[in-house]
Write a structure and sequence with these properties.
This protein is of the alpha/beta class. Helices cover 41% and strands 16% of the residues. It is built from 13 helices and 14 strands. The radius of gyration is 21 Å and the shape is elongated. Strand 7, helix 8 (208-220) and strand 8 (227-229) form a beta-alpha-beta unit. Bound molecules: thiamine diphosphate (TPP).
């Protein structure tokens, strides 16, 4: 097992003292350690492509490579700047990528990680990025890290290290930001489902929000056919909801989003805001954290998502039980502050994504 502090010391000793990325559950200890100990040299990016951009700027300004960490789900977000900015055939910018390997072949994982897990290493190979899997032995892992940094510097190129589940020794985040509100997210989801659960169809975002929607439906004795649980594809739920809302103008469509997810592809807010779909309600459950992968902070505690939504063309509204808070001639936006954390015994959807899709389409009267 690798101690996150030893890993950071090794990076610093090898010439990397700037860290950026998007948190991942397999890198939870490492992300928590840099959040606690490297605050002036660490930026949590909104998406993995942005982190590659930031690392590139850091190199241009200092001549030093940065570390970019991500879950392998974020490879897609990073591909464009890796190929058209940092690649040796373009600006040739050294950086080290640290990539959590969800869905590693042979290790059981959630359905959304299986395909990504299979293609993680081949995808880097196709991109021409030298890639190695960090071994479990700490000394060997540190040696591989030193060599990878040297390779990035010598070749002036991105080099990646892939991280298996359980590599990092436990380290718990110390610097928790205070909660924006003491209302648990699952309690708010219950209120929303009690109010709109049988009237609207729902598109829920990646992570705990989808799992809590599923569990709350079970608890309320409601079926799951009105909910599309976007288990992967972080940041795209609002556009998915827009696709449904445009095709079914008489159907209320509610997107239940997270603050991390809405920041990840915030441009979607401008498109949804200008869509004119008054049957679309976009609700962000804001805990100012990437709660589902370890609670690392987002900037959403200090950024007014409501102001942004209003400027994008949404009607900003509040959740009021018993009152229909939508259909203002434009899409509705609600930002609801919630606390961090979830039940320890929170379950996962029992149906496969394919079954979820078929039931949801059936609800919309479409055959799949
Ligand atoms: C492209 C991509 N990057 C990273 C992840 C890992 N990930 C899963 S859930 C999550 C945090 C989501 O945070 P937020 O939307 O604020 O919801 P919360 O978990 O706080 O309810 C992250 C980073 C992912 N699934 N996809």
């Amino acid at each position: 097992m690798l101690n996150p502090s030893d890993f950071v010391d090794c990076l610093v000793g090898s010439g990397i003292d700037f860290f950026t990325g998007v948190p991942d559950s397999l890198l939870k200890s490492f992300c928590a350690y840099v959040t606690d100990h490297c605050s002036d040299r660490h930026v949590i990016a909104s998406n993995e492509g942005g982190a590659v951009g930031l690392a590139s700027g850091h190199y241009l300004a200092t001549g030093k490579p940065a570390l970019v960490y991500m879950q392998n789900s974020g490879q897609g977000n990073a591909v464009n700047p890796l190929l058209s900015l940092a690649d040796p055939e373009v600006y040739s910018i050294p950086m080290l990528l640290l990539v959590g390997w969800r869905g590693m072949p042979g290790v059981h994982d959630e359905p959304q990680h299986v395909k990504q897990g299979k293609v993680t290493v081949p995808l880097f190979e196709t991109l021409g990025i030298p890639t190695q899997v960090l071994p479990d032995d700490a000394i060997a892992a540190l040696e591989m890290t030193r060599q990878a940094v040297a390779q990035a510097l010598d070749g002036k190129r991105p080099v990646s290290l892939v991280v298996r589940k359980g590599l990092f020794a436990d380290y718990a985040l110390q610097s928790h930001q205070p909660d924006l509100c003491d209302m648990p997210r699952e309690g708010v989801i219950e209120l929303i489902l009690k109010e709109y659960g049988q009237e609207a169809v729902f598109v829920a975002t990646t992570g705990m929000i989808s799992r809590e929607v599923y569990e709350t439906r079970e608890r309320l004795g409601q079926d799951h056919a009105r909910d599309f649980l976007t288990v992967g594809s972080m940041g795209h739920a609002s556009m998915l909801a827009l696709g449904v809302a445009k095709a079914h103008p008489d159907q209320l469509v509610i997107c239940l989003d997270g603050d991390g997810a809405s920041l990840m592809h915030m441009g979607n807010m401008a498109i949804v805001g200008q869509s004119g779909c008054e049957n679309l309600m976009h609700i962000v459950l804001n805990n100012a954290a990437h709660d589902s992968v370890g609670g690392q902070p987002t900037v959403a505690g200090k950024v007014s998502l409501c102001d942004i939504a209003q400027a994008c063309g949404y009607a900003v509204s509040s959740f009021m039980p018993g009152i229909r808070c939508y259909a203002y001639g434009q899409p509705t936006f609600m930002e609801i502050y919630v606390s961090k954390g979830a039940r320890k015994d929170l379950g996962r959807p029992k149906e496969s994504p394919l079954v979820n899709k078929a039931l949801f389409m059936q609800t919309l009267g479409v055959s799949s």
